Amino acid sequence: MGRLVYINGKFVKEEEAYISIFDRGFLFSDAIYEVTAVIDKKLVSWEGHLNRLRYSLSELNIKFSYSDEELFSIHKKLIVQNKINEGLVYLQISRGKAERDFAFPKPEVEPTIVLFTQIKNLINNPKINFGSKVISSPDLRWGRTDIKTVQLLYASIMKQKALDLGKDDVWFENNKLITEGSSNNTFIISNNGTLITRSLSTKILPGITRKSILEYAKKANFNIEEKPFTIEDTKNAKEAFSCSSTTFIMPVVEIDDCKIGSGTPGKHTLELRKLYIKNVRKELI
Ligand code: PMP
Question: In the chain, what's the furthest Cα-to-Cα distance?
């Protein structure tokens, strides 16, 4: 039996969920999304995801009427009905269905809303023991990657290129500075133990995991610098990792065929991963 999903006010089986061919998400990528992790049947960093969702909607001027409470209760119902002990809830919202036209529909139409779940091993992810091997590539995405839109084609193409080369992921670079990964934010740990991550701007997604890591690391007295870094800095770093709701903290052990540190998941990275999981567990809802 297929999953239960949510579409435009209804809970239905995935086989019964359809949206129009005129949906602007399909025609123009005129849509945003969020993905929230689930641990022990509860949501991780829900407030952060909600705030970023509201930010993305407002930057694209999509008028969306659901309250925070309604969104929370839809998430909860899908978690229970689909028996998600550990996994993900995706929430996708497009501007809605309208005759094809670059201009936004007038009068405004109802946004399309879809939610679906995935079961995933987030804590005991076997990949953590090996770490991720990444390639670098120019960041050819659009200039507002701080908005969580569904325009993921370039990231998808480059992720596939990495896989075809026998690697795991891609880190994007703009003006010689790393922006972020295909679907994650990036950190390095310098030889003196400083945690370095690029500061927020329109060039990167303000990751919810990134934010929590910085908060917990600060409390644990890590030295932190929010500043840009290069591929060379990454090659010379002691450790590196990427972070996202779907992986939490993923050690990065190689970039462009060059080992980072010992070429195995770093000690501080694994310590931070434990710290992250311990702390988010306290804030599950
Ligand atoms: N950057 C990009 C481009 C992403 O797609 C993601 C994953 N949603 C992230 C960063 C990490 O964000 P978060 O920690 O909120 O999942």
Answer: 59
